Amino acid sequence: MGIFGARSEEFYLKEFESLRKEIETVEQDQRSLERNVVVAVAVAWGWLWSRDKEPPAWAYVVPCLLTTLGWLRARGVKQVYGLFTSYLLTVEESFWKPGAPKGWHHHITKPGTETTFMKGANQFWIILNAATFGVALLRLFNLLR
Predict the structure, then answer these.
(1) Within a domain: residue 2?
(2) Distant-in-sequence, close-in-space partners of 80: CB < 8 Å, separation ≥ 6
(3) What is residue 7's DSSP assignment?
(4) Which has the minimum average pLDDT: 20-24, 110-114, 129-133?
(5) Confidence check: pLDDT of 69 > 80
(6) What distance in Å separates the CA atoms of residue 95 and residue 43, rounded to the nearest whole number?
(7) How much of the chain is in helix, strand and coil states, percent to nearest 5?
(8) How far apart are CA 76 and CA 58, in angstroms?
(9) What is the DSSP letter of 59?
(10) What is the 3-state secondary structure (H, E, C) of 20-58?
């Protein structure tokens, strides 16, 4: 046991509380990212469709690039979320006593209990990327005016 072993319980409880707040911040950042990418894609499409002259083909890559970069950033957020969850599982396990509830992170790691935050984020990026690439392809082949 280290020199601070006698006070480690207090440390881990404070750290646990701090990490829970960080997770809430990560979730807010994820939602902000989603909103900002949708706004940026809408502005890009609005600009492309408002042109009197047909924009060059490469211009249709811009909305697709925005959604792809957003999706990549969201994957990074999900990985950070996973690291927090993994660590908090360890902390919860160390404080668990027989017969007591195991804690929130033990609950959400059971099969079928993925948080709506993660489920919704995955669905959001799949739909946004499919729609953006679909519209770009339709415009490039002059099937959508």
Answers:
(1) no
(2) 26
(3) G
(4) 110-114
(5) yes
(6) 50
(7) 80, 0, 20
(8) 27
(9) G
(10) HHHHHHHHHHHHHHHHHHHHHHHHHHHHHHHCCCCCCHH
Q: How many domains does the chain have?
A: 1
Domain of residue 37: give its range: 8-140
CA dihedral for 128, 133, 134, 140, sign (positive or negative): positive
Evaluate whether residue 117 is within a structural domain. yes
Q: Is residue 1 part of a domain?
A: no
Is the distance from CB of 64 to CB of 132 less than 8 angstroms?
Answer: yes
For the segment 75-97, the average pLDDT, to the nearest whole number, is 79
> Over the Cα atoms of the chain, what is R_g?
22
DSSP structural state of residue 110: S
What is the spatial distance between Cα 136 and Cα 65, in angstroms, rounded to a whole number? 11
